[in-house]
Amino acid sequence: MTDDRLHWRLIDREPPTDYQIFQVRRQRSAHPETGEAHRFSIIESVPFVNVLALTRDDEVVLVRQFRHGVQRVSVELPGGLVDPGEHPRAAAERELREETGFIAARWERLGVVDANPAIQDNQCTLFLALDAERTAERDLDAGEVIEVEITPLAEIPGRIAAGEISHTLVMTAFFFLLDRAGGWRRP
């Protein structure tokens, strides 16, 4: 089966507007069936990483921080932007250490997902960090206020069901863990 009939033809695009960590590009594209022009806005961003870090006692390293988009505190996995020229694994190790002070003995790539393909052009690489332990001081960015929270893996399903954990990319990392491990346990 071919997806050619679903492709929109690019008519033109405007230069992107820079907003520090991302750019917004506007473009016009032709409807694949009618040819009618429609305007779209696309967020251009560098790749993201998220780290599902488990301690030797099967506790998850979580972070709590205020998120301006939803105007509330969000419970998430450590993560962030991949710096230009940086490998996603290196970014994951850096973000885990900077945000939490933890390092991990073993690393596995869980998967790569589109962050939000309707409006964004980037991807998020999800990593599993095993045998994580706190060994360093945190090194937060000037715009970060983060609390570290250690939670038994067995409590994660309840926290998701209660809406305490609601970030889609975080939940996706837990999905990959469930798939790999066959349940809420260490793979």
Describe, in short, the structure shown.
This protein has three helices and twelve strands; from the N terminus they run E-E-E-E-E-E-E-E-H-E-E-E-E-H-H. It has about 190 residues and is α+β, with helices and mostly antiparallel strands.
Keyphrases for this structure?
alpha+beta; five-stranded mixed sheet; 18% helix
Quaternary structure: single chain
Major sheet size, sense and barrel closure: 5 strands, mixed
Order of helices and strands: EEEEEEEEHEEEEHH
User: Could you list the spans in which at least 5 consecutive residues all have pLDDT below 50?
Assistant: none
- The class by helix and strand makeup works out as alpha+beta
The percent of residues in helical segments reads: 10-25%
Number of strands: 12
Separation, N- and C-terminal Cα atoms: 36 Å
Calculate the mean pLDDT score and round it.
95
Work out the helix count. 3
Q: How many whole angstroms does the radius of gyration measure?
A: 19 Å
Shape: globular
Please report which band the strand proportion falls in: under 5%, 5-15%, 15-25%, 25-35%, 35-45% or over 45%: 35-45%
How would you describe what is shown here?
The chain is α+β, with helices and mostly antiparallel strands and 187 residues long. 18% of the residues lie in helices and 42% in strands. The chain contains three helices and twelve strands; from the N terminus they run ββββββββαββββαα. Strands 5, 8, 9, 10 and 11 form a five-stranded mixed beta sheet that branches. Strands 1, 2, 3 and 4 form a four-stranded antiparallel beta sheet that branches. β6 (59-67) and β7 (72-76) form a beta hairpin. The mean pLDDT is 95.
